[in-house]
């Protein structure tokens, strides 16, 4: 039986391919800050705190309607979280651990433009491929936990954006929220009792540019 995540991606990519025959096509690049965290089971006497990473990528937008596009993207994403521990005698939680992930992300999103083509909303699924994972406790060396985690991650992503139209290109600013749909581990990592079953979450502030690659009538929307 085909995996549910693969069925979702296959269906969306098939829609993109079929639509591109008659659709306007745009390409673009984006990058910015990725504020990430973990949620789910909490380690004993500890809690998670967000950390900041880098997010950058490229995308193709296939317009299936004047105001609706399917956006196929690929991105490099730094993720993870800090762990704050309750240390006896300390007046507050102590920051003493950090989980670091690196993913290759493949979001497939629907973009819906306002009538002025400046404001837009987006939503869809984000398929992640884990590239590396490590845990650092205090001043100890990084511990590789890549083999203990799921190599794939499926998330839901939504956000809003605004475009600025220049002479030959379009600049944009986006805010996105992503929430994980699957645990990074099916069971707590046995030899790392401070890393139980958790999911990813993140908020991104992204800036980028896009260029119309092809339109059915050969006319550009840039003004």
Summed up, what is this model?
This protein is mainly β. It has one helix spanning 4-19; strands at 25-40, 46-49, 51-65, 68-85, 94-113, 119-137, 143-144, 152-165, 170-180, 198-214. The protein is 7% helix and 61% strand.
Description:
A hairpin with a 4-residue loop joins β8 and β9. The protein has one helix at about 5-20, and strands spanning about 25-40, 45-50, 50-65, 70-85, 95-115, 120-135, 145, 150-165, 170-180, 200-215. With about 220 residues, the chain is mostly beta strands. About 25% of the residues are buried. The protein has an eight-stranded antiparallel beta barrel. The chain has one domain (about 5-75, about 105-130, about 150-215): Porin.
Notable features of this structure?
223 residues; mainly beta; Porin; eight-stranded antiparallel barrel; 1 helix; 10 strands; 61% strand; elongated
Strand and helix map with partners:
Elements: H1 4-19, E1 25-40, E2 46-49, E3 51-65, E4 68-85, E5 94-113, E6 119-137, E7 143-144, E8 152-165, E9 170-180, E10 198-214
Query: What is the name of the CATH architecture?
Result: Beta Barrel
Order of helices and strands: HEEEEEEEEEE
Radius of gyration: 20 Å
Question: What helical percentage do the residues reach?
Answer: under 10%
Side-by-side strand order of the widest sheet: 1-3-4-5-6-8-9-10
Number of helices: 1
Label the structural class.
mainly beta
Poorly predicted ranges: 18-22
- Please describe the biggest sheet, giving its number of strands, its sense, and whether it closes into a barrel: 8 strands, antiparallel, barrel
Strand share of the residues? over 45%
Task: Give the number of DSSP strands.
Answer: 10
Calculate the terminal CA-CA distance, rounded to whole Å: 49 Å
In CATH's first tier, which class applies? Mainly Beta
CATH topology: Porin
Q: Indicate how many domains the architecture comprises.
A: 1
Mean pLDDT: 83
């Amino acid at each position: 039986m085909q995996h549910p995540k693969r069925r979702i991606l296959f269906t969306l990519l098939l829609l993109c391919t079929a639509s591109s025959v008659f659709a306007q096509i745009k390409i673009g690049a984006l990058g910015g800050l990725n504020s990430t965290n973990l949620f789910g089971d909490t380690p004993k006497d500890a809690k998670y705190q967000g950390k900041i990473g880098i997010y950058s990528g490229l995308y193709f937008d296939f317009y299936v309607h004047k105001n609706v596009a399917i956006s196929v993207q690929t991105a490099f994403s730094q993720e993870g979280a800090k762990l704050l521990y309750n240390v006896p005698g300390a007046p507050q939680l102590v920051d003493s651990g950090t989980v670091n992930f690196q993913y290759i992300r493949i979001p497939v999103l629907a973009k819906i433009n306002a009538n002025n083509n400046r404001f837009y909303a987006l939503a869809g699924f984000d398929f992640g491929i884990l590239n590396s994972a490590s845990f650092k406790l205090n001043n100890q060396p990084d511990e590789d936990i890549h083999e203990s985690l799921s190599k794939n991650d499926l998330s839901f992503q939504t956000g809003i954006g605004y475009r600025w139209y220049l002479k030959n290109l379009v600049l944009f600013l986006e805010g996105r929220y992503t929430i994980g749909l699957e645990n990074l581990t099916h069971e707590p990592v046995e030899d790392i009792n401070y890393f139980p079953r958790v999911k990813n979450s993140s908020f991104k502030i992204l800036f980028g540019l896009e260029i119309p690659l092809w339109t059915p009538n050969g006319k550009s929307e840039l003004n």
